[in-house]
């Protein structure tokens, strides 16, 4: 006996459509093997409603390509010597270093014009350039037969205005250098809004039902159904589980076969009707009209559950898949 943990395909598709309604097609971010749920599995559900996919690197590109004919964009630069392989697989490579530019120029001379991705991001952990370096970087691409897809990531709500202004200035620098700007994308789930939809929206956690502050009406696509292993009638026991969590004498509860070993956050213990969370079992108070076996369902809110657990929506989404 074990919990049933799955994604609801119609909800995934409806969430993608909800973001696209902002006015730009959706590039589904399926890095880290689709947040652990399987990039190919997500592509089977989303291929008819998204414009393209975004993966981390060349390894993820090769793994996903058999599942889709749509464009696949990369966030990381190609390892040295691998750019040709990425292009052969129909990937749109990212470039952020002099070495990557040099390899792209060689490939453009050999096979003709193609597009590369160039990120303008002021934070670490991204294969991107800083906005003040845009002019010099654009000059290194000029005349090479390369168009650019410019992108940024709003890494801080407090700096959002600055990030977008610097991004606009960087775009002008590329245009002034004579480098064709094929497209621009700046919005991920948290920053998704009509004014910055540009040519596409990069949506990852939002596909699963996270909003992260944006105003898009999405629903939880995660389904967690836990079998009941024990029913607790009022007065049958004094404690809900590990530690000193009392079970009020008037309360009915169930013990469910699902715990933090299955991805259900331990920190949810003591919130709402969750009394205790162990490695394999969760104690939950019962009430009329609710199915206690549905630990996560269509009526739940990803952002609310993540906040109660003290984790990010991304961690909540990936937690159930990586067990």
Automatic annotation (TrEMBL):
Where in this protein does the record say N6-(pyridoxal phosphate)lysine is found? Answer: 31
**Its domain of life?**
Bacteria
Q: Which Pfam families match?
A: Ala_racemase_N (PF01168)
Boundaries of each Alanine racemase N-terminal domain copy? 12-211
One GO BP on record is:
alanine metabolic process
Give this protein's Gene Ontology molecular function annotations: alanine racemase activity
Q: Which cofactor does it need?
A: pyridoxal 5'-phosphate
Keyword list (alphabetical) reads: Isomerase, Pyridoxal phosphate
Q: What is this protein called in UniProt? A: Alanine racemase N-terminal domain-containing protein
- Native source organism of the sequence: Vulcanimicrobium alpinum
- What are the leading ranks of the lineage? Bacteria, Bacillati, Vulcanimicrobiota, Vulcanimicrobiia, Vulcanimicrobiales
């Amino acid at each position: 006996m074990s919990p049933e943990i799955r994604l609801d395909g119609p909800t995934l598709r409806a969430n993608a459509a909800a973001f696209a309604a902002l006015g730009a097609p959706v590039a589904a971010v399926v890095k880290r093997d689709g947040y652990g749920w399987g990039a190919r599995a997500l592509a089977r559900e989303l291929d008819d409603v998204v414009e393209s996919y975004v993966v981390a690197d060349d390894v993820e590109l090769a793994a996903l390509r058999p599942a889709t004919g749509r464009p696949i964009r990369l966030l990381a630069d190609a390892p040295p010597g691998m750019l040709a392989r990425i292009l052969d697989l129909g990937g749109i490579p990212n470039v952020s270093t002099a070495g990557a530019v040099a390899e792209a120029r060689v490939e453009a001379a050999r096979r003709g014009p193609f597009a590369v991705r160039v990120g303008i991001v002021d934070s670490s952990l991204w294969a991107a350039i800083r906005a003040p370096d845009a002019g010099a970087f654009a000059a290194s691409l000029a005349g090479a037969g390369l168009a650019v897809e410019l992108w940024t990531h709003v890494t801080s709500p407090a700096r959002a205005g600055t990030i977008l202004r610097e991004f606009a200035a960087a775009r002008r620098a590329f245009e002034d250098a004579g480098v064709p700007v094929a497209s621009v994308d700046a919005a991920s789930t948290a920053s998704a809004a009509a004014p910055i939809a540009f040519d596409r929206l990069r949506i990852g956690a939002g596909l699963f039902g996270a909003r992260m502050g944006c105003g898009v009406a999405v629903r939880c696509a995660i389904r967690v159904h836990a079998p009941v292993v024990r029913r607790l009638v009022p007065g049958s026991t004094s404690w809900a589980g590990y530690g000193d969590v009392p079970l009020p004498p008037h309360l009915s509860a169930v013990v469910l076969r699902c715990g933090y070993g299955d991805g259900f956050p331990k920190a949810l213990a003591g919130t709402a009707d969750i009394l205790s969370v162990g490695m394999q079992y969760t104690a939950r108070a019962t009430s009329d009209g609710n199915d206690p076996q549905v630990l996560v369902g269509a009526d739940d809110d990803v952002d609310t559950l993540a906040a109660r657990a003290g984790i990010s929506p991304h961690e909540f989404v990936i937690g159930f898949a990586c067990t």
